[in-house]
Design brief:
With 176 residues, the chain is of the alpha/beta class. It has a single domain, classed as Rossmann fold, CATH 3.40.50. It is 25% helix and 32% strand. It has five helices and seven strands. The protein has a seven-stranded mixed β-sheet, sandwiched between helices. Strand 6 and strand 7 form a beta hairpin. It is globular and about 40 Å long. The structure holds S-adenosylmethionine (SAM). S-adenosylmethionine (SAM) binds next to loops.
Length: 176
Amino acid sequence: MFESARLQIVAGWIRHYGRRRVLDIGCGQGQLLLTLDPLVVDDYVGVDASRVATESARRRPDIPARFLVADIQSEDLPADLRTDCLCFVDVAYYLPLPAEVFARTLRHLASDGILIVCQWIHPDADAPHNHKAAAVFTAMEATGNGLLDDVALQSAMTGNTWRLKVIRPRAVPACS
Ligand SMILES: C[S@@+](CC[C@H](N)C(=O)[O-])C[C@H]1O[C@@H](n2cnc3c(N)ncnc32)[C@H](O)[C@@H]1O
């Protein structure tokens, strides 16, 4: 799988922290699902604004999965949706108001759950993209009391760089 190392890091954190229920925001075609360990994860929900992406997502026989079509910036998820691992893999920098989205989606996260954010980093340190990515990480870090891990990843083949962070957010009241 092309440049799958970022997904392997995400899946590794999910395994390490023993998180069973994964909510993958901006899931695209569900590439993360294909990377997860079925001995750990027994529930996957992918959410994407693109119906075409979710409809072409590949399933796997060993992890129950479903896909929802929603614009996470403007639409709420089903109130009864619960997760213990909230993932934003290469999507949060597209969101006009990421802090607002974190606040709303954290209402679906268990009190001992984790939040993972992965972002591609532009090679030009001063690129507008990187300012947006930095603002996303600031909003992410404001949800918790310190990071659990923070990784910089670079493909020696393509030069592409990603930054990945994981945090245990402070508990917020669940959706009712
Ligand atoms: C770069 S792709 C990443 C896909 C996948 N997470 C991965 O890393 O392979 C970004 C995805 O985010 C989705 N997306 C962008 N804005 C969104 C929004 N407001 N709500 C839901 N999905 C969104 C896009 O449709 C696209 O599938």
